[in-house]
Amino acid sequence: MEKPAAAEHPIHDMMVRRWSPRAFAPRPLPRDQILTLLEAARWAASSFNQQPWHFLVATREDEERFAALLDCLVPGNQVWARNASLLIVTVTKRTFDHNDKPNSCCVHDIGLAACQLVLQATEMGLATHQMAGIEPDRIRERYGVPEGYDPVTAIAVGHAGDPDSLPDDLREMELEARARRPFADWVFADGWGNPAGY
Predict the structure, then answer these.
(1) Pairing mode, strands 24-25 and 86-93
(2) Whole-angstrom distance, CA of residue 24 vs CA of residue 163
(3) Chain center to CA of 28
(4) pLDDT tens digits, 73-122
(5) What is the residue extent of each domain of the chain?
(6) Which fold has domain 29-163?
(7) pLDDT in tens, 10-56
(8) Across the chain, how many H-helices and E-strands are there?
(9) Alpha-carbon distances, residue 113 vs 20, 40, 46 (angstroms)
(10) Buried (b) or exposed (e) across 54-72, using 16+ Cβ within 10 A?
């Protein structure tokens, strides 16, 4: 299923096609495709080139690892993410390596890495869905995440599936039209809340 953005101005086709479905077809993802996705994330920009991102990954073919990572999502996300081909939990390092000072950009930078992975997946014809609904304490304990590192999000990657495979409430969301706030709501000039006129 495709759900292109109703962009009002010209943007790259990858961004038009990228969206976050919950319906996945439970099929494997070839290793070379996974490596391409990780390579895209690896080359994201970051403050001081810190590259503060770390990924915990599990493929559906490795049932034990997949079940363990799936269990680190909140129950509402487990309902649909269980059909993904690849699950990723993103973890960021809070401090810089070169001076051990707080990296106020670490969450921003992990977002850039995730964005590049998601756009690469879109270019490859794959579906992705990023989610905040994770169990950070469970992730810390299960994977031995060290002090100074924070689980941030999860990403489901795979092949788009049939919306009819979802429960009624999720199917409704899957079929809703996509929408975004107008520029006047968030692009300001001269003062907060003063639209820049774009």
Answers:
(1) unpaired
(2) 8
(3) 19
(4) 999 999 999 999 999 999 999 999 999 999 999 999 999 999 999 999 99
(5) 29-163
(6) NADH Oxidase (3.40.109)
(7) 999 999 999 999 999 999 999 999 999 999 999 999 999 999 999 99
(8) 7, 5
(9) 17, 8, 9
(10) bbbbbbbeeeeebebbbeb
